[in-house]
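Subject: Expansin-yoaj protein-like protein 170 structure
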Amino acid sequence: MFLVAVIMSLATMSVAEPICEESLDGPQFQGRATYFHAAPAMAGNGACMLASDDPMVVGMAGANYENSQVCGECIEVTGPQGNSVVVSVIDMCGCEENGLNLSQESFRILESDVSFGSIDVTWRVVTCDIEGNINYRFLDGSSKWWFGIQAINHKYPVARMELRQRRTNAWIDLERSNTNFFMKPTSISTIEAPFELRLTSVNGYVVTDNIDAIQSDELIEGTGQFGNCRDNYDCTIDERTYSGEATFYYGAATAAAGSGACMINTGGDLMIGAMTAALWDESQACGECVEVTGPQGDTVFIQIIDLCAGCPEGDINLSTDAFTQLGNLEDGRIDIEWKVVECVVDGNIKYKFKDGSSKWWFAFQIVDHRVPIKSIAIKPDGQDTWIDLPRQSFNFFLQGVDVIDVPFAIRVTGTTDEVLEDRITRFPSSMDDLHDGSVQFTTTCTSKATKIMLNTSYIIVLYFTLIPCII
Protein backbone atom coordinates (compact mmCIF):
# COMPACT_ATOMS: atom_id res chain seq x y z
CA MET A 1 0.00 0.00 0.00
CA PHE A 2 1.29 3.47 -0.64
CA LEU A 3 0.13 7.02 -0.08
CA VAL A 4 0.31 9.47 -2.94
CA ALA A 5 0.11 13.21 -2.43
CA VAL A 6 -0.02 15.03 -5.71
CA ILE A 7 0.11 18.67 -6.73
CA MET A 8 0.10 18.49 -10.48
CA SER A 9 -0.64 20.46 -13.64
CA LEU A 10 0.84 17.96 -16.10
CA ALA A 11 0.12 14.36 -17.00
CA THR A 12 0.98 11.55 -14.55
CA MET A 13 4.53 10.20 -14.71
CA SER A 14 5.84 6.79 -13.66
CA VAL A 15 8.37 6.48 -10.83
CA ALA A 16 10.85 3.61 -10.51
CA GLU A 17 10.80 1.55 -7.32
CA PRO A 18 13.85 2.28 -5.15
CA ILE A 19 15.39 -1.18 -5.24
CA CYS A 20 19.11 -1.17 -4.38
CA GLU A 21 20.44 1.90 -6.19
CA GLU A 22 23.21 1.03 -8.65
CA SER A 23 24.48 4.60 -8.69
CA LEU A 24 26.37 6.36 -5.95
CA ASP A 25 24.78 9.64 -4.95
CA GLY A 26 27.36 11.75 -6.76
CA PRO A 27 26.79 14.41 -9.41
CA GLN A 28 27.09 14.09 -13.18
CA PHE A 29 30.17 15.59 -14.79
CA GLN A 30 30.68 16.96 -18.28
CA GLY A 31 34.01 16.92 -20.07
CA ARG A 32 35.99 15.79 -23.10
CA ALA A 33 37.06 12.21 -23.66
CA THR A 34 40.11 11.07 -25.61
CA TYR A 35 41.43 7.55 -26.05
CA PHE A 36 44.67 5.63 -25.57
CA HIS A 37 46.11 2.17 -26.10
CA ALA A 38 45.50 0.78 -22.64
CA ALA A 39 47.61 -2.41 -22.70
CA PRO A 40 50.51 -1.01 -20.57
CA ALA A 41 48.10 0.38 -17.96
CA MET A 42 46.12 -2.87 -17.98
CA ALA A 43 49.33 -4.70 -17.10
CA GLY A 44 49.48 -2.72 -13.85
CA ASN A 45 51.71 0.11 -15.05
CA GLY A 46 49.11 2.88 -14.79
CA ALA A 47 49.07 5.46 -12.02
CA CYS A 48 46.76 3.24 -9.93
CA MET A 49 49.03 0.20 -10.31
CA LEU A 50 45.93 -1.93 -10.92
CA ALA A 51 46.05 -4.72 -13.47
CA SER A 52 42.92 -5.45 -15.50
CA ASP A 53 41.88 -8.22 -17.88
CA ASP A 54 38.94 -6.10 -19.01
CA PRO A 55 39.77 -3.47 -21.65
CA MET A 56 36.91 -1.24 -20.44
CA VAL A 57 39.24 1.06 -18.50
CA VAL A 58 39.95 4.78 -18.24
CA GLY A 59 42.45 7.35 -17.06
CA MET A 60 41.02 10.12 -14.85
CA ALA A 61 41.94 13.82 -15.08
CA GLY A 62 44.45 14.87 -12.45
CA ALA A 63 41.97 17.40 -11.04
CA ASN A 64 39.57 14.53 -10.30
CA TYR A 65 42.18 11.96 -9.25
CA GLU A 66 41.87 12.78 -5.52
CA ASN A 67 45.27 11.36 -4.56
CA SER A 68 44.28 7.98 -6.07
CA GLN A 69 40.95 7.68 -4.21
CA VAL A 70 39.24 7.23 -7.59
CA CYS A 71 41.38 4.18 -8.39
CA GLY A 72 39.24 1.12 -8.95
CA GLU A 73 35.98 3.05 -9.04
CA CYS A 74 33.55 2.47 -11.86
CA ILE A 75 32.09 5.27 -13.94
CA GLU A 76 29.30 5.27 -16.49
CA VAL A 77 30.23 7.40 -19.50
CA THR A 78 27.66 8.63 -22.03
CA GLY A 79 28.71 9.89 -25.46
CA PRO A 80 27.18 12.45 -27.80
CA GLN A 81 24.99 9.83 -29.52
CA GLY A 82 23.52 8.60 -26.23
CA ASN A 83 25.58 5.38 -26.09
CA SER A 84 26.95 4.47 -22.67
CA VAL A 85 29.78 2.34 -21.33
CA VAL A 86 30.93 1.49 -17.80
CA VAL A 87 34.69 1.68 -17.28
CA SER A 88 37.06 1.19 -14.37
CA VAL A 89 39.61 3.83 -13.35
CA ILE A 90 43.16 2.45 -13.50
CA ASP A 91 45.20 5.48 -14.59
CA MET A 92 45.54 9.26 -14.48
CA CYS A 93 45.62 11.49 -17.55
CA GLY A 94 46.77 14.99 -18.38
CA CYS A 95 43.19 15.89 -19.32
CA GLU A 96 41.45 19.06 -18.28
CA GLU A 97 39.19 18.86 -15.24
CA ASN A 98 36.35 16.30 -15.71
CA GLY A 99 38.13 14.95 -18.79
CA LEU A 100 38.67 11.23 -19.41
CA ASN A 101 41.18 9.19 -21.37
CA LEU A 102 39.29 6.08 -22.43
CA SER A 103 40.71 2.84 -23.72
CA GLN A 104 40.27 2.62 -27.47
CA GLU A 105 37.81 -0.27 -26.99
CA SER A 106 35.51 1.77 -24.73
CA PHE A 107 35.88 4.92 -26.85
CA ARG A 108 34.57 2.99 -29.90
CA ILE A 109 31.35 2.17 -28.03
CA LEU A 110 30.65 5.89 -27.75
CA GLU A 111 32.03 6.91 -31.15
CA SER A 112 32.92 4.32 -33.79
CA ASP A 113 35.04 6.78 -35.77
CA VAL A 114 38.14 7.22 -33.61
CA SER A 115 39.46 9.82 -36.05
CA PHE A 116 37.39 12.34 -34.11
CA GLY A 117 40.11 12.09 -31.46
CA SER A 118 37.97 13.55 -28.70
CA ILE A 119 34.26 13.80 -27.95
CA ASP A 120 31.96 15.46 -25.42
CA VAL A 121 30.85 13.12 -22.67
CA THR A 122 28.91 13.09 -19.42
CA TRP A 123 29.85 10.67 -16.65
CA ARG A 124 28.95 9.61 -13.14
CA VAL A 125 30.32 7.22 -10.54
CA VAL A 126 28.36 3.95 -10.22
CA THR A 127 28.57 0.80 -8.14
CA CYS A 128 31.04 -1.67 -9.65
CA ASP A 129 29.30 -4.82 -10.91
CA ILE A 130 31.70 -7.33 -9.44
CA GLU A 131 31.59 -10.74 -7.82
CA GLY A 132 33.44 -11.99 -4.78
CA ASN A 133 35.21 -10.25 -1.94
CA ILE A 134 37.75 -7.46 -1.68
CA ASN A 135 41.31 -8.71 -2.17
CA TYR A 136 44.62 -7.17 -1.14
CA ARG A 137 48.15 -6.81 -2.51
CA PHE A 138 51.33 -5.62 -0.80
CA LEU A 139 53.95 -3.62 -2.67
CA ASP A 140 56.98 -5.54 -3.83
CA GLY A 141 59.60 -5.44 -1.08
CA SER A 142 57.10 -4.96 1.74
CA SER A 143 58.14 -6.07 5.22
CA LYS A 144 57.49 -5.18 8.84
CA TRP A 145 59.83 -2.20 8.39
CA TRP A 146 58.08 -0.71 5.38
CA PHE A 147 55.05 -1.69 3.39
CA GLY A 148 52.21 -0.51 1.19
CA ILE A 149 48.93 -2.35 0.70
CA GLN A 150 46.12 -1.77 -1.80
CA ALA A 151 42.54 -3.02 -1.98
CA ILE A 152 41.37 -4.69 -5.18
CA ASN A 153 37.88 -5.67 -6.40
CA HIS A 154 35.78 -3.27 -4.32
CA LYS A 155 32.24 -2.13 -5.14
CA TYR A 156 32.86 1.44 -4.02
CA PRO A 157 35.98 3.64 -3.85
CA VAL A 158 38.07 3.20 -0.69
CA ALA A 159 38.25 6.38 1.40
CA ARG A 160 40.24 5.09 4.37
CA MET A 161 42.30 2.12 5.50
CA GLU A 162 43.31 1.37 9.09
CA LEU A 163 45.03 -1.51 10.83
CA ARG A 164 45.17 -2.85 14.35
CA GLN A 165 47.56 -5.43 15.66
CA ARG A 166 46.04 -8.38 17.48
CA ARG A 167 45.05 -7.82 21.09
CA THR A 168 45.62 -4.05 20.92
CA ASN A 169 42.96 -1.38 21.04
CA ALA A 170 44.19 1.41 18.79
CA TRP A 171 43.44 1.61 15.09
CA ILE A 172 46.29 3.09 13.05
CA ASP A 173 45.54 5.15 9.95
CA LEU A 174 47.55 4.10 6.91
CA GLU A 175 48.74 6.94 4.69
CA ARG A 176 47.39 6.94 1.14
CA SER A 177 49.88 7.43 -1.70
CA ASN A 178 49.06 8.72 -5.18
CA THR A 179 49.85 5.23 -6.54
CA ASN A 180 46.79 3.72 -4.81
CA PHE A 181 48.68 2.03 -1.97
CA PHE A 182 48.15 2.72 1.72
CA MET A 183 51.54 3.03 3.41
CA LYS A 184 52.78 2.16 6.88
CA PRO A 185 53.27 5.41 8.83
CA THR A 186 56.93 6.39 9.04
CA SER A 187 56.37 7.40 12.68
CA ILE A 188 56.03 3.71 13.63
CA SER A 189 59.23 1.69 13.39
CA THR A 190 57.74 -1.76 12.72
CA ILE A 191 54.33 -3.32 12.28
CA GLU A 192 54.20 -7.09 12.22
CA ALA A 193 51.46 -9.36 10.93
CA PRO A 194 49.02 -10.75 11.80
CA PHE A 195 46.83 -7.68 12.06
CA GLU A 196 43.28 -6.57 11.43
CA LEU A 197 42.53 -4.31 8.48
CA ARG A 198 39.53 -1.95 8.39
CA LEU A 199 38.38 -0.30 5.14
CA THR A 200 35.83 2.49 4.85
CA SER A 201 34.21 3.32 1.52
CA VAL A 202 33.39 6.82 0.30
CA ASN A 203 29.73 6.20 1.15
CA GLY A 204 30.37 4.91 4.66
CA TYR A 205 30.39 1.11 4.34
CA VAL A 206 32.95 -0.65 6.54
CA VAL A 207 34.73 -3.95 5.94
CA THR A 208 37.05 -5.59 8.47
CA ASP A 209 39.49 -8.29 7.39
CA ASN A 210 42.46 -10.20 8.78
CA ILE A 211 45.94 -10.13 7.27
CA ASP A 212 47.96 -13.12 8.46
CA ALA A 213 51.27 -12.32 6.76
CA ILE A 214 52.96 -9.56 4.79
CA GLN A 215 53.28 -11.27 1.41
CA SER A 216 55.25 -9.16 -1.01
CA ASP A 217 53.45 -8.62 -4.36
CA GLU A 218 51.06 -11.56 -3.88
CA LEU A 219 47.25 -11.50 -4.06
CA ILE A 220 45.62 -12.04 -0.67
CA GLU A 221 41.98 -13.11 -0.72
CA GLY A 222 39.70 -11.19 1.61
CA THR A 223 36.47 -12.27 3.30
CA GLY A 224 34.22 -9.21 2.93
CA GLN A 225 32.74 -6.73 0.50
CA PHE A 226 31.22 -3.25 0.82
CA GLY A 227 27.50 -2.92 1.32
CA ASN A 228 24.41 -4.97 0.68
CA CYS A 229 20.74 -4.46 0.02
CA ARG A 230 19.92 -4.41 3.73
CA ASP A 231 21.41 -0.93 4.08
CA ASN A 232 18.51 0.46 2.03
CA TYR A 233 15.75 -1.67 3.62
CA ASP A 234 14.19 -2.38 6.97
CA CYS A 235 14.38 -6.15 7.44
CA THR A 236 13.02 -6.32 10.99
CA ILE A 237 11.17 -9.57 11.70
CA ASP A 238 10.56 -9.01 15.42
CA GLU A 239 9.33 -5.56 16.49
CA ARG A 240 10.73 -5.99 19.99
CA THR A 241 13.85 -3.95 20.75
CA TYR A 242 16.17 -5.15 23.50
CA SER A 243 18.53 -3.06 25.64
CA GLY A 244 21.63 -4.26 27.41
CA GLU A 245 25.38 -4.23 27.25
CA ALA A 246 27.83 -5.68 24.75
CA THR A 247 31.01 -7.40 25.80
CA PHE A 248 33.53 -9.15 23.56
CA TYR A 249 35.54 -12.34 23.42
CA TYR A 250 38.68 -13.43 21.60
CA GLY A 251 37.53 -16.98 20.85
CA ALA A 252 35.14 -15.92 18.11
CA ALA A 253 37.26 -17.36 15.28
CA THR A 254 37.13 -20.80 16.91
CA ALA A 255 33.38 -20.52 17.46
CA ALA A 256 32.88 -19.39 13.86
CA ALA A 257 34.58 -22.60 12.69
CA GLY A 258 31.71 -24.62 14.16
CA SER A 259 32.74 -25.15 17.78
CA GLY A 260 30.25 -22.69 19.27
CA ALA A 261 27.13 -23.86 21.07
CA CYS A 262 25.14 -23.60 17.81
CA MET A 263 27.68 -25.69 15.85
CA ILE A 264 27.41 -23.21 12.96
CA ASN A 265 30.35 -22.71 10.62
CA THR A 266 30.21 -19.17 9.22
CA GLY A 267 32.86 -19.73 6.56
CA GLY A 268 35.23 -17.17 8.07
CA ASP A 269 32.68 -14.42 8.71
CA LEU A 270 33.53 -13.01 12.15
CA MET A 271 30.53 -10.66 12.45
CA ILE A 272 29.09 -12.96 15.10
CA GLY A 273 27.88 -13.02 18.68
CA ALA A 274 26.78 -15.14 21.62
CA MET A 275 23.23 -14.83 22.97
CA THR A 276 22.28 -14.55 26.62
CA ALA A 277 20.80 -17.72 28.12
CA ALA A 278 17.59 -15.83 28.96
CA LEU A 279 16.86 -15.45 25.23
CA TRP A 280 18.52 -18.65 24.03
CA ASP A 281 15.13 -20.38 23.75
CA GLU A 282 16.40 -23.98 23.53
CA SER A 283 18.84 -22.94 20.74
CA GLN A 284 16.10 -21.27 18.64
CA ALA A 285 18.31 -18.16 18.67
CA CYS A 286 20.94 -20.06 16.70
CA GLY A 287 21.51 -18.65 13.25
CA GLU A 288 19.32 -15.60 13.75
CA CYS A 289 20.67 -12.27 12.59
CA VAL A 290 20.71 -9.26 14.87
CA GLU A 291 21.07 -5.55 14.19
CA VAL A 292 23.07 -4.06 17.08
CA THR A 293 23.27 -0.30 17.67
CA GLY A 294 26.04 1.14 19.86
CA PRO A 295 26.16 4.22 22.12
CA GLN A 296 27.23 6.53 19.26
CA GLY A 297 24.50 5.32 16.89
CA ASP A 298 26.80 3.02 14.88
CA THR A 299 25.20 -0.22 13.71
CA VAL A 300 26.55 -3.69 13.00
CA PHE A 301 24.79 -6.84 11.77
CA ILE A 302 25.80 -10.11 13.41
CA GLN A 303 24.74 -13.75 13.40
CA ILE A 304 24.17 -15.65 16.66
CA ILE A 305 26.36 -18.75 16.74
CA ASP A 306 27.08 -19.21 20.44
CA LEU A 307 25.64 -19.09 23.97
CA CYS A 308 26.74 -16.61 26.62
CA ALA A 309 25.60 -18.43 29.74
CA GLY A 310 26.72 -15.68 32.11
CA CYS A 311 25.27 -12.70 30.24
CA PRO A 312 22.27 -10.91 31.80
CA GLU A 313 19.10 -10.69 29.71
CA GLY A 314 19.54 -8.17 26.90
CA ASP A 315 23.33 -8.50 26.74
CA ILE A 316 25.27 -9.93 23.78
CA ASN A 317 28.86 -11.14 23.75
CA LEU A 318 30.32 -9.94 20.44
CA SER A 319 33.37 -10.93 18.46
CA THR A 320 36.11 -8.29 18.63
CA ASP A 321 35.47 -7.58 14.94
CA ALA A 322 31.84 -6.67 15.65
CA PHE A 323 32.53 -4.88 18.95
CA THR A 324 35.05 -2.50 17.38
CA GLN A 325 32.38 -1.32 14.92
CA LEU A 326 30.53 0.11 17.92
CA GLY A 327 33.21 1.04 20.46
CA ASN A 328 36.79 0.57 21.65
CA LEU A 329 38.06 -2.63 23.19
CA GLU A 330 39.43 -0.71 26.18
CA ASP A 331 35.83 0.18 27.10
CA GLY A 332 35.24 -3.47 27.96
CA ARG A 333 31.48 -3.15 27.75
CA ILE A 334 29.17 -0.67 26.04
CA ASP A 335 25.46 0.09 26.07
CA ILE A 336 23.55 -1.35 23.10
CA GLU A 337 20.11 -1.75 21.64
CA TRP A 338 19.34 -4.63 19.30
CA LYS A 339 16.61 -6.34 17.34
CA VAL A 340 16.24 -9.50 15.24
CA VAL A 341 16.33 -8.97 11.46
CA GLU A 342 16.37 -11.12 8.36
CA CYS A 343 19.65 -12.74 7.41
CA VAL A 344 21.06 -11.75 4.04
CA VAL A 345 21.47 -15.11 2.31
CA ASP A 346 22.01 -16.23 -1.26
CA GLY A 347 19.94 -19.15 -2.50
CA ASN A 348 17.86 -21.75 -0.69
CA ILE A 349 18.16 -23.28 2.75
CA LYS A 350 20.48 -26.26 3.22
CA TYR A 351 20.55 -29.24 5.58
CA LYS A 352 23.60 -30.30 7.57
CA PHE A 353 23.41 -33.86 8.94
CA LYS A 354 25.54 -35.10 11.81
CA ASP A 355 28.13 -37.72 10.98
CA GLY A 356 26.73 -41.24 11.17
CA SER A 357 23.17 -40.28 10.24
CA SER A 358 21.17 -43.15 8.72
CA LYS A 359 17.67 -44.55 8.68
CA TRP A 360 18.23 -45.86 12.22
CA TRP A 361 19.13 -42.46 13.70
CA PHE A 362 19.77 -39.02 12.32
CA ALA A 363 20.12 -35.41 13.38
CA PHE A 364 20.39 -32.32 11.24
CA GLN A 365 20.29 -28.54 11.37
CA ILE A 366 19.10 -25.92 8.88
CA VAL A 367 21.75 -23.72 7.28
CA ASP A 368 21.35 -20.45 5.34
CA HIS A 369 17.88 -19.57 6.58
CA ARG A 370 16.54 -16.00 6.38
CA VAL A 371 14.58 -16.22 9.64
CA PRO A 372 15.11 -18.28 12.82
CA ILE A 373 13.77 -21.82 12.81
CA LYS A 374 10.80 -22.45 15.10
CA SER A 375 10.09 -26.14 14.45
CA ILE A 376 10.68 -29.05 12.08
CA ALA A 377 8.48 -32.02 11.21
CA ILE A 378 9.04 -34.90 8.80
CA LYS A 379 6.70 -37.28 6.98
CA PRO A 380 7.98 -40.61 5.64
CA ASP A 381 6.81 -41.58 2.17
CA GLY A 382 3.61 -43.59 2.32
CA GLN A 383 2.47 -42.08 5.63
CA ASP A 384 -0.09 -39.36 6.31
CA THR A 385 1.14 -38.16 9.70
CA TRP A 386 3.79 -35.51 10.30
CA ILE A 387 6.32 -36.36 13.02
CA ASP A 388 7.62 -33.42 15.08
CA LEU A 389 11.36 -33.62 15.72
CA PRO A 390 12.67 -32.49 19.11
CA ARG A 391 15.18 -29.66 19.07
CA GLN A 392 18.46 -30.25 20.85
CA SER A 393 20.40 -27.63 22.83
CA PHE A 394 23.22 -27.82 20.24
CA ASN A 395 20.92 -26.63 17.41
CA PHE A 396 20.18 -29.98 15.75
CA PHE A 397 16.81 -31.69 15.33
CA LEU A 398 16.91 -35.36 16.31
CA GLN A 399 15.13 -38.47 15.05
CA GLY A 400 16.02 -41.57 17.02
CA VAL A 401 12.69 -43.23 17.74
CA ASP A 402 11.60 -44.82 14.45
CA VAL A 403 13.30 -46.35 11.44
CA ILE A 404 12.89 -43.71 8.74
CA ASP A 405 14.71 -44.01 5.44
CA VAL A 406 15.09 -41.48 2.67
CA PRO A 407 13.34 -40.03 0.82
CA PHE A 408 10.98 -38.23 3.18
CA ALA A 409 9.13 -34.90 3.27
CA ILE A 410 10.19 -32.15 5.63
CA ARG A 411 8.22 -29.19 6.97
CA VAL A 412 10.19 -26.21 8.31
CA THR A 413 8.41 -23.47 10.27
CA GLY A 414 10.08 -20.11 10.87
CA THR A 415 9.52 -17.71 13.74
CA THR A 416 7.45 -15.63 11.32
CA ASP A 417 5.11 -18.68 11.15
CA GLU A 418 5.83 -19.16 7.46
CA VAL A 419 5.91 -22.88 6.61
CA LEU A 420 8.23 -24.41 4.00
CA GLU A 421 7.92 -27.92 2.61
CA ASP A 422 10.82 -29.74 1.03
CA ARG A 423 12.24 -33.24 0.49
CA ILE A 424 15.28 -35.03 1.86
CA THR A 425 16.53 -37.50 -0.73
CA ARG A 426 19.79 -38.77 0.80
CA PHE A 427 21.83 -38.98 3.99
CA PRO A 428 24.97 -36.91 3.35
CA SER A 429 28.30 -38.64 3.93
CA SER A 430 29.63 -36.04 6.39
CA MET A 431 28.79 -32.71 8.04
CA ASP A 432 30.71 -30.96 5.28
CA ASP A 433 28.43 -32.54 2.66
CA LEU A 434 25.39 -30.26 2.77
CA HIS A 435 22.05 -31.39 1.36
CA ASP A 436 20.71 -28.62 -0.89
CA GLY A 437 17.16 -27.50 -0.29
CA SER A 438 14.71 -26.14 -2.85
CA VAL A 439 12.92 -23.52 -0.72
CA GLN A 440 13.61 -20.33 1.22
CA PHE A 441 11.63 -18.05 3.54
CA THR A 442 9.96 -15.08 1.87
CA THR A 443 11.62 -11.74 2.49
CA THR A 444 9.68 -9.23 4.56
CA CYS A 445 12.06 -6.32 3.90
CA THR A 446 10.43 -2.96 3.24
CA SER A 447 12.01 0.07 1.64
CA LYS A 448 13.41 2.83 3.86
CA ALA A 449 13.30 5.21 0.92
CA THR A 450 10.90 8.09 0.55
CA LYS A 451 10.99 9.52 -2.94
CA ILE A 452 10.45 13.25 -3.27
CA MET A 453 10.45 14.43 -6.86
CA LEU A 454 10.33 18.09 -7.78
CA ASN A 455 9.37 19.64 -11.10
CA THR A 456 8.49 23.19 -12.14
CA SER A 457 4.91 22.08 -12.68
CA TYR A 458 4.28 19.53 -9.95
CA ILE A 459 5.46 17.84 -6.77
CA ILE A 460 4.99 14.14 -6.19
CA VAL A 461 5.66 12.51 -2.82
CA LEU A 462 5.57 8.73 -2.77
CA TYR A 463 5.85 6.58 0.34
CA PHE A 464 6.77 3.05 -0.66
CA THR A 465 6.12 -0.01 1.46
CA LEU A 466 6.34 -3.71 0.85
CA ILE A 467 9.07 -3.30 -1.75
CA PRO A 468 10.89 -6.65 -1.97
CA CYS A 469 14.56 -6.62 -1.04
CA ILE A 470 16.68 -8.39 -3.65
CA ILE A 471 19.13 -10.42 -1.57
